[in-house]
Design a protein that fits this description.
heterodimer; A: alpha+beta; Immunoglobulin-like; four-stranded mixed beta sheet; B: mainly alpha; Cytochrome C Oxidase, Chain A; 3 domains; two-stranded antiparallel ribbon
């Protein structure tokens, strides 16, 4: 039944089109336009439509930009984020001027220079001065923007400060895992062959004893005002660490550890107050297509005052302690003593 | 040099005379329309296949826009088409969503905007505009289409297999695309994708070699490179880009096939998936990205340059003015072609590659903005004080310039690695490339169809329907892609099935619904075009010899040019293609084959000196 309806509808649509087409052609012939005139008598209307498009288009642009401004670039909460945001807005400002002026020319010209029989177009094949000018000026402006970007990029990608807090982030289908270095602050070595259903991160206890005090919380906790070095890796396919509020993005690549460091500048509480949203949370998302659950790889990030963070850090139980059976099953030399050593408060 | 050209030209003509005799023996239907070696027929084959793929690619996007715009909607009504890809709850399957996104990208970039655009217009216009009987090798040209056809068949079949077509994004980054256990689409669907793309690359190399050879060797008498229409310059450089970059994609695909089927580790290392650690060690997924984008970036210019060439021709013709800065236009095309090869890693600022490389590629990337800006300024100067004729082709060309600007300026933000950290893989990128290379190239293709339809089919398309088509499409495209900037600035990531999991991305639900609605309307408006196109082939008004009063050579052929294009001698070319509204001239155009000796009233001083040379030519 539906098929029949669709079929009849389509036939009617095509018939209607054919009728319109026929009428339009006949009108042209009736008007005595046996000889084809490109554009016919539609010059004025098309010219006016371009002007209308220009006015309404930019009207809508300004109106909606004002309305949507609150969602633009979520409030930056990292030191470099302020700088990249500023560069983004400078770039946007400059390009907007170009965007506006070129469109003014592009959409007003059609109306003012529309076809009239008695007019002749200007013979103007080139103008060297003008061409040099509009090659050199964009080149200079772009150079300035590049230098601005380079200056920030150089700092962002410089090696992390020595006293940075190291946090390991591991992507897998389809969730993130996070690991801290524990008491010694050192994140233990891993080996992908050691991964199993329990030891999801592949911590290599035999090769590196500093694994014993590492802990694996469910959320990422970060202190405000201290540089954080994210050590990023992936277990199966590409993922990408995206922390929108911190302006952090870096791919997680199987077999090739990557990293990104930044300094949070606002605690979760401060952001909640600032945004007047008691449910606000910093979030970690995935931005490299990784399969079915790509859109659901969420992890909450909590930024707190340094003292509060230290308290939380100290209260975390090492993974090895939580999984004593697993450690025992490894039959490591002195494993019990080692575990005990690292587990004591 | 000139003598060499003439000699070559003679030999070709003799060759074609033999050909003509064959034709008198009545070519069979199969040789004339199916396995044809006539560049015009092959162009139409590419065009029809391209239109077919454009419809498929467009419909796929409508399906995933339904999901994104109306996440709560019950899509049960799609079950007759999609079957079990609609879940029991009436939702789109999440894996199939990714398949749709992937196929939409692959189809649009390669099958529509590469084969459909270059394949159609390079084939159709190169011989006609340079004054040649046909391509350098009609046989290779035919093979080029049929490889494309094979590739299309394989890709089309992959849409219907049980595990679904390739789903790892159109870039098909490994390991996701290399491991069948990572997603269903990486199984047979991905194998078919690789086979299809390999065939596609063969097709595009065969085409490219032909275009380049033809432009270099078969130009008619007098048609020096400095008299070539900008369309030909654009097609020529597009072919050069393709010839140098597609083999790299072939290599990338080959290594991926090895990793998938023969246990090698080019792209795979230290992977634990589905409860097992794989044996692969030492490969690098980033290697694939380098190889892919070494094609992938030139590819966006392969898509864009033909559109720019077509627009140059149409804007000059319909402004009744010479294109402003002809030499600067060629220079910027050359500049873009060269730079296109050394900017690829700006797609990879946050891929984990060395940040120092990021610095280098940021510098190179922003340099490429300069020739692009020069092109835009030259278009604007061409319109300035013109006598603008609004044919549908002209409207689409003006639209192209607008979209090229709008999409281009956001590239300046994205090309800056520091700014790109936040914007990478968000909807800002989606907005950027859909405007600057997707919609703009599409507009170039449509403009080309409206402009050369009379030459292709000997009939006119209906102008009024063309106007309606243009305005709905132009407004629609802006309504679809402009709002995506807002989503992108707010951080919305690409290729998300839904954003509701995140507090950060739970705004703008209304905007997404708006985009989807606009997309459906814009898509529906293409029916007007489709009708106009197919109906006019049979029932359009017969076309005058030179409907747009244009200067280029194709308009000196008969209404229905046979194989060989010109019944008699190929016209000789005396002047550049942009003598529009020349002071003193009787008409507002002087075609390229009119010698200066016939136009003493409009000749510039240095052109009068050329008259003596023309007489030598005539001997």
């Amino acid at each position: 039944m539906t098929g029949l309806l669709v079929l009849t509808g389509s036939i009617l649509l095509v018939a209607a089109f054919a009728l319109i087409y026929r009428i339009l052609t006949l009108i042209e012939i009736a008007k005595g336009r046996q000889d084809y005139q490109p554009g016919g008598n539609s010059h004025a209307i098309n010219g006016v439509l371009f002007i209308l498009f220009f006015i309404v288009g930019f009207g809508l642009f300004f109106w909606y930009s004002g309305k949507a401004a609150e969602n633009f670039l979520p409030e930056a909460a990292s030191e470099h984020g302020k700088l990249t945001d500023r560069l983004f807005w400078i770039t946007t400002g400059i390009t907007f001027v170009v965007f506006f002026l070129t469109h003014a020319l592009l959409f007003l010209s059609p109306y003012f220079f529309r076809y009239r029989k008695d007019r002749k177009a200007l013979w103007w094949p080139d103008n060297t001065k003008l061409e040099v000018a509009w090659t050199v000026v964009p080149a200079i402006v772009l150079t300035i923007l590049i230098l601005g970007g380079w200056w920030i990029w150089r700092d962002v990608t410089a090696p992390a400060p020595d006293n940075s807090l190291e946090v390991e982030i591991v992507g897998k289908q389809f969730n993130w895992m996070v690991r801290y270095g524990g008491k010694d602050g050192k994140i233990g070595k891993h080996n992908f062959r050691k991964i199993d259903a329990t030891n999801q991160l592949g911590m290599d206890f035999a090769a590196d004893k500093s694994n014993f005090d590492d802990f694996v919380p469910r959320e990422i906790h970060l202190p405000k005002g201290r540089s954080v070095l994210l050590k990023i890796r992936a277990r199966d396919v590409l993922h990408s660490v995206f922390l929108p509020h911190f302006r952090v993005k870096m791919d997680a690549v199987p077999g090739m550890p990557t990293s990104f460091w930044f300094t949070p500048t606002k605690t979760t509480e401060e952001m909640r107050r600032e945004l007047n949203d008691p449910n606000f949370n910093y979030e970690l998302a995935c931005t490299e297509i990784c399969g079915q659950g790509h859109f659901a790889m969420r992890m909450v990030v909590v930024v707190s005052e340094p003292e509060e963070f230290e308290k939380w850090y100290a209260s975390q139980e090492p993974w090895a302690k939580q999984n004593a059976d697993y450690i025992a099953s490894l039959n490591l030399e002195n494993s019990k003593e080692l575990a005990a050593l690292f587990n004591q408060k | 040099m000139a003598t060499v050209n003439i000699d070559l030209h003679h030999s070709v003509e003799e060759h074609v005379h033999h050909h003509d005799e064959h034709e008198h023996h009545h070519e069979s239907f199969i040789r004339k329309y199916i396995f044809s070696e006539d560049h015009k027929v092959i162009a139409k084959q590419f065009l029809f296949t391209g239109i077919f793929w454009a419809i498929i690619g467009g419909l796929l996007s409508i399906i995933f826009r339904l999901q994104l715009g109306f996440p709560e909607a019950n899509l049960e009504f799609l079950r007759p088409i999609l079957g079990d890809w609609i879940t029991a709850q009436g939702k789109l399957d999440q894996n199939f969503y990714l398949a749709l996104v992937t196929m939409h990208g692959t189809i649009m970039v390669f099958f529509v905007l590469t084969a459909g655009l270059s394949g159609t217009f390079s084939n159709f216009l190169i011989p006609l505009q340079i004054g040649a009987r046909d391509m350098a090798s009609g046989f290779l040209n035919m093979l080029s289409y049929w490889f494309f056809f094979l590739s299309s068949v394989v890709m089309f079949i992959s849409l219907f297999i049980e595990t679904g077509p390739a789903s790892g994004g159109w870039v098909v980054y490994p390991p996701l695309s290399a491991l069948p256990q990572a997603m269903p689409g990486s199984g047979l669907g991905m194998t078919l994708w690789l086979i299809s793309m390999s065939l596609f690359i063969v097709s595009s190399l065969l085409g490219g070699i032909n275009y380049i050879t033809t432009v270099i060797n078969l130009r008619t008498e007098g048609m020096s490179f400095s008299k070539l229409p900008l369309t030909i310059w654009a097609f020529f450089l597009t072919a050069v880009l393709g010839l140098l970059s597609f083999p790299v994609l072939f290599a990338a695909a080959l290594l991926l096939i090895f990793d998938r089927s023969f246990g090698t580790s080019f792209y795979l290392s230290e992977i634990y998936i589905n409860g097992e650690a794989l044996h692969n060690v030492g490969g690098s997924p980033v290697l694939y990205q380098h190889l892919f984008w070494f094609l992938g970036h030139p590819e966006v210019y392969i898509v864009m340059l033909p559109g720019l060439g077509i627009t140059s021709e149409i804007i000059a013709t319909n402004s009744r003015k010479p294109i402003f800065g002809y030499r600067a236009m060629i220079g910027s095309l050359l500049g873009i072609t060269f730079l296109a090869f050394i900017v690829w890693a700006h797609h990879m600022f946050v891929s984990g590659m060395n940040p120092f490389l990021g610095t280098i590629f940021m510098f190179l990337t922003l340099i490429i903005a300069v020739p692009s800006a020069v092109k835009v300024f030259n278009y604007l100067a061409t319109l300035w004080r013109g006598n603008i004729v609004f044919t549908p082709a002209m409207l689409f060309s003006i639209g192209l310039v607008s979209l090229f600007i709008t999409g281009g300026v956001t590239g300046i933000a994205l090309g800056n690695s520091a700014v790109d950290i936040q914007l990478h893989d968000t909807y800002y990128v989606v907005a950027h490339f859909h405007l600057v290379m997707g919609a703009a190239s599409f507009f170039g293709m449509v403009a080309g169809i409206y402009h050369w339809f009379p030459k292709m089919f000997g009939r006119m398309m209906n102008e009024k329907l063309g106007y309606v088509h243009f305005w709905i499409t132009f407004i629609g495209v802006y309504m679809v892609f402009f709002p995506m900037h807002y989503l992108g600035i707010a951080g919305f990531p690409r290729r998300y099935y839904s954003w509701t999991n995140f507090n950060a991305f739970d705004s703008f639900a209304d905007l997404n619904a708006f985009i989807s609605t606009a997309a459906i309307i814009t898509m529906a408006a293409q029916l007007i075009f489709l009708f106009n196109f197919f109906y006019s082939i049979f029932r359009g008004r017969l076309a005058p010899a030179n409907p747009w009063r244009s200067n280029t050579l194709e308009w000196t052929t008969p209404r229905f040019p046979g194989h060989g294009n010109w019944p008699g001698k190929i016209p000789t070319v005396y002047r550049w293609p942009y003598d529009y509204s020349k002071p003193g001239a009787k008409e507002d155009y002087i075609p390229q084959h009119i010698p200066y000796s016939e136009t003493p009233e409009s000749n510039l001083p240095h052109e009068n000196e050329l008259i003596a040379l023309e007489k030598e030519f005539a001997k």
